[in-house]
Amino acid sequence: MNKTILWCIGSPILLDDGAGPALFSELEAFPAEGVVPVNCETTPENWIAPLSKNPPQVLMVADAADMGLPGGSVRRMKLEDTGGITFSSHGIPLSLLLEPLKKSVEIEVIGIQPEKRGFGEGLSPEVSRAVQFVAQTIREGRTGELERYQENRSPR
Fold first, then answer.
1. Strand order in 106-112's β-sheet?
2. Residue 47 contacts by C-beta under 8 Å, 6 or more apart in sequence?
3. What digits encode the pLDDT tens for the residues 16-57?
4. pLDDT band for position 1 (50/70/90)?
5. Residue 134's closest CA among 59, 89, 75, 52?
6. Beta strand pairing status for 106-112 and 74-78?
7. Are strands 106-112 and 58-64 parallel, antiparallel or unpaired?
8. Three-state DSSP class for 53?
9. Could you tell me the pTM of the whole model?
10. Is 78 in contact with 69 (CB distance < 8 Å)?
11. What are phi and psi of 126, to 5 degrees?
12. Spatial distance between the Cα atoms of 78 and 74, rounded to a whole number of angstroms
């Protein structure tokens, strides 16, 4: 069985940080075959135990991520690529949280660049479009086609 769990992370009261929960809502309303979305909000650590007891083949993690790109940009990355990226609303870095699962579960992270930060509800138009794009990409089974994140390592 090719089981995929999708962790949707973020805070819906922190503007574009709510991209993950918005993606959860979108996929709950219009599901993607073979993908089980989980609304982790700001506490992905609460979902480690269920994941460890019944590990999927693939764990996708969707979260707002400050990658230094234009708002609404979407990038996919491996867990080890997330070290220099800011994920604002959860305290434990994804790389630390998911490290124990790396050997038995394929882990992919989908980052959505926020346009607006701060307290408030609702997504910016850029991030709202990005959430719709990611949802459709997941439904069509094309997440492997999402652009890979490349850290800007040019000298300043």
1. 35-41, 4-9, 58-64, 106-112, 74-78
2. 7, 38, 40
3. 999 999 999 999 999 999 999 999 999 999 999 888 888 999
4. very low
5. 75
6. antiparallel
7. parallel
8. helix
9. 0.90
10. no
11. -65, -45
12. 14
